[in-house]
């Protein structure tokens, strides 16, 4: 793991992040790399702005195969509304960029990457915003176990569908299988 400090915030790049990205870009054009990381930066900037607006502060940013995780300072309980606002702010930032670009008649891959990133991050995996939102809304409630089992079943279904896509479309669909497998593995580690 590589760890650096930026303005008092620890930025930790785990080896799994580098391996995961190398595998993804092994199957995709290298011309997409800058656009991909720019879209990710827009997404995470949305979260960071929301955290600041809610009066929070960031202790660390972890980059791993499971994604980018922002760790905030612990300081009492966070109101449910603030948690929801922070979780939805990343996808919202991507949707705003997509909408502005489409309204400006900007075509190409960049607007689509923003929309795809927003949709992807709303998938029901704990390491993504959609799953974290489900966890936030069900934590400590009678439906918490049911939500976990439903998310686990959806993860297995997603891996199966991704494997079918690889069989049908070949290596072009391999990033889907890699991502769905990594997300599922991350979820299983999260809920141990």
Describe this structure in words.
This protein has two domains: 1-122, no CATH class; 124-187. The relative contact order is 0.11. It has seven helices and four strands; from the N terminus they run E-E-H-H-E-E-H-H-H-H-H. Helix 2 (32-53) crosses helix 3 (80-103). The protein is an alpha+beta fold and 192 residues long. Strand 3 (58-64) and strand 4 form a beta hairpin. The protein is globular. The longest helix is centred in the last third of the chain and has 26 residues, at 144-169. The protein is 65% helix and 12% strand.
Strand line-up of the largest beta sheet: 1-2-3-4
Shape from CA axes? globular
> Helicity, in percent?
55-70%
Strand content: 5-15%
Average pLDDT for all residues: 87
The number of helical runs is 7
Radius of gyration: 17 Å
State the order of secondary-structure elements, H for helix, E for strand.
Answer: EEHHEEHHHHH
Class computed from helices, strands and strand pairing: alpha+beta
Distance between the termini: 23 Å
Number of domains: 2
Number of strands: 4
Task: Give the low-confidence spans.
Answer: none
Major sheet: size, sense and barrel closure? Answer: 4 strands, mixed
Map the helices and strands:
Layout: E1 2-6, E2 9-13, H1 15-26, H2 32-53, E3 58-64, E4 67-72, H3 80-103, H4 109-121, H5 129-138, H6 144-169, H7 174-190
Parallel strand pairs: 2-3
Antiparallel strand pairs: 1-2, 3-4
Helix pairs in contact: 1-7, 2-3, 2-4, 3-4, 3-5, 5-6, 6-7
Quick rundown:
The chain is of the alpha+beta class and 192 residues long. The chain is 65% helix and 12% strand. It has two domains: 1-122, no CATH class; 124-187.
């Amino acid at each position: 793991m590589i760890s650096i400090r930026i303005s008092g915030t620890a930025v930790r790049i785990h080896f799994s992040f580098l391996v995961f990205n190398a595998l993804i870009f092994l199957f995709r054009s290298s011309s997409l790399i800058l656009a991909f990381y720019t879209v990710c930066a827009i997404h995470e900037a949305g979260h960071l702005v929301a955290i600041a607006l809610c009066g929070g502060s960031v202790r660390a940013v972890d980059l791993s195969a499971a994604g980018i995780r922002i760790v905030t300072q612990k300081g009492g309980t966070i109101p449910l509304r603030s948690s929801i606002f922070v979780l939805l702010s990343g996808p919202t930032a991507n949707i705003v960029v997509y909408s502005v670009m489409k309204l400006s008649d900007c075509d190409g891959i960049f607007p689509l990457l923003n929309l795809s990133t927003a949709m992807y991050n709303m998938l029901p995996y704990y390491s993504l915003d959609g799953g974290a939102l489900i966890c936030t809304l069900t934590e400590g409630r009678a439906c918490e176990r049911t939500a976990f089992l439903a998310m686990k079943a959806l993860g297995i279904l997603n891996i199966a569908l991704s494997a079918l896509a690889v069989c049908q479309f070949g290596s072009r669909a391999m990033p889907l299988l890699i991502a769905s497998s990594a997300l599922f593995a991350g979820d299983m580690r999260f809920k141990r």
